[in-house]
Amino acid sequence: MTAATLDGRAIAARVRARVAAEARAAGLVPGLTVVVVGEDPASQVYVRNKAKAAAAAGFRAATIALPAETTEAALLAIIARLNADEEVDGILVQLPLPKHIRPEAVIEAIDPAKDVDGFHPVNAGRLAIGRPALVPCTPKGVMTLLAEAGVTLTGARAVVLGRSAIVGRPMAALLTAADATVTLAHSRTRDLAAECRRAEVLVAAVGRAEMVRGDWIAEGATVIDVGINRRPDGRLVGDVAFAEAAERAAWITPVPGGVGPMTIASLLENTLIAAKARRGLA
Ligand code: NDP
After folding, report:
1. Is residue 44 among the annotated active site residues?
2. 75: domain range?
3. Considering its fold, how many domains does the chain have in total?
4. In a domain, 270, yes or no
5. Percent of the chain with pLDDT over 90
6. Which of 117, 140, 225, 239 is catalytic?
7. Between vectors from CA 244 to CA 136 and to CA 192, what angle results, nearest 5°?
């Protein structure tokens, strides 16, 4: 089998257009504020892209860029101000933060109703008990890709590689909620290849360049590659050896151009959800 490629850029563009149209139809201008601390180049790019996409969707987008030496107290004060600001529907603090700031203190300070990254323990807890509200953007984007591919999740054997709080765990929760039978694998999993070979749906979110080889893939599987890794030659690759895996999978996402664009599309969806909920429209 030769896999069909799931075009994240095209699907994300459709999602963004739908969100913009929905906001317009509801007469809403959702407000998103992105906060970034320090000069991490990747973070700067992510923040710029998020604010640009929000503005393109007709949202009120603001970026607060703070110097690396900003104290935790100062950042918490800014979040308190954003929590109280009626014009702000969504607050996103770009991670990673400088070492002297505790990410958990910052995430927990965000009003859960404005937590468009879905990282606050209230939102993580709601997802874990099957009552999702604001869901982390990357796994939410993966669910949209799976829906677009028409993949049947009910009863399917799904394997998620990686158990981080921002990707792997919420991914497993979403697949469980969609009635898949989910295995959550990680660095201590015995015989990862064998676990993967059983997967009808495989989501790789490990951060190891091309770790998942072609012979780990079941014939006809759907393979979603969340990983973004830079090779020494500068090339961006995923966690899956794309060409090998594509020989066996039915569907596969490329890197770049697969899951990445979906993350921003999901952020816009979450901001609209938050804006509607805060106005009693949802
Ligand atoms: P983390 O480093 O937080 O988590 C990685 C997970 O992979 C951990 O659970 C770890 O296991 C597991 N792992 C690491 N090495 C192995 C191994 N050799 N075998 C099996 N499991 C292993 O990463 P994130 O979840 O934040 O991100 C994962 C990848 O996704 C990265 O490449 C990141 O850049 C990318 N990413 C992409 C996004 C997008 O928009 N496309 C958004 C977010 C992330 P253990 O828990 O045992 O340590």
Report:
1. no
2. 27-111
3. 2
4. no
5. 98
6. 117
7. 60
pLDDT of residue 248: 98
Pocket test for ligand 1, best of 164, 216, 263, 270 (most atoms within 8 A of CB): 164
Atom of ligand 1 nearest to the CA of 207: 32
Tokens of 17: 């257009």
Best CA proximity match to 91, nearest among 70, 120, 58, 71:
120
- Interval between CA 157 and ligand 1 midpoint (Å): 21
- State the CB neighbour count (10 A cutoff) for residue 105: 14
- ∠ CA 223-227-228, nearest 5°, is 135
Please indicate, yes or no, if residue 184 is contained in any of the structural domains.
Answer: yes
Tens digits of residue pLDDT in 236-282:
999 999 999 999 999 999 999 999 999 999 999 999 999 999 999 97
CATH number at residue 201: 3.40.50.720
Give me ligand 1 centre to Cα 21, in Å: 34
Amino acid at 148: E
Residue range 53-92, pLDDT digits in tens: 999 999 999 999 999 999 999 999 999 999 999 999 999 9
Distance (angstroms) between ligand 1 centre and the Cα of 239 equals 9
Is the separation of the CB atoms in 118 and 125 below 8 Å? Answer: no
Instruction: Look up residue 219 and give its two tokens.
Output: 């014939």
Quote the pLDDT of residue 132: 86
pLDDT at residue number 252: 98
For range 198-224, the mean pLDDT: 98
Say which CATH number the domain at 38 has.
3.40.50.10860
Same domain, 140 and 254: yes
Ligand 1 surroundings by CB, under 6 angstroms? 138, 161-164, 166-168, 186-188, 192, 205-208, 226-229, 259-260, 263
Please check whether residues 183 and 93 belong to one and the same domain. no
Alpha-carbon span 126 to 130, nearest angstrom: 6
